[in-house]
Amino acid sequence: MAYRGLRSGPVFGLRREIDRLFEDTFGGESGRGSWSPPVDIREDGREIAIEVELPGIKPEDVDVTAENGVLTIRGEKRSTSTENNEGRYHIVERSYGTFTRSFQLPTGVDEKGIAAEFNDGLLVVRVPKAALAQPRRIEIRNSGSQPAVQGSPTPAAEPSRSTERQAESGNGGGTSSSKPNSRTRS
Hints:
Immunoglobulin-like, three-stranded antiparallel β-sheet, 7 strands, elongated, four-stranded antiparallel β-sheet, about 190 residues, alpha+beta
């Protein structure tokens, strides 16, 4: 007998039974198993997008939180099997139960701007990147000299810079005129 495909044959059946045994033994609360939905993470210049495949789950059964730099997605996929009077299952490959996926967010993202949308069994969580802080130039003060107090008058012995410039240009601080200044410095 030839076994075709990756998910058929006695080896896969044995693995499935072992997985089910571990889920039943160590699974989530009340004997329900836990599972991990597949995730794709994409990044561009504006955002990080986390795409979580959640077929058969309603949006109200999913919770997305961001706290202290960790994004957590939790939820539950309820079993639709009704194995009572009408037959029995021979193979159960679909996963049911609770799930939790947590992701450490990098620095430089805007946690307050995180948004999520759910469409056709695909949850997309968008994490916008924050504007990077630009370097700021810090003024260095000379600790050896006393800083001038703004608004204090300049001493009479020392002329101010504007007075020195006016004296060099030949204008003694008065209004400018076309006549040359009759006072000369000696």
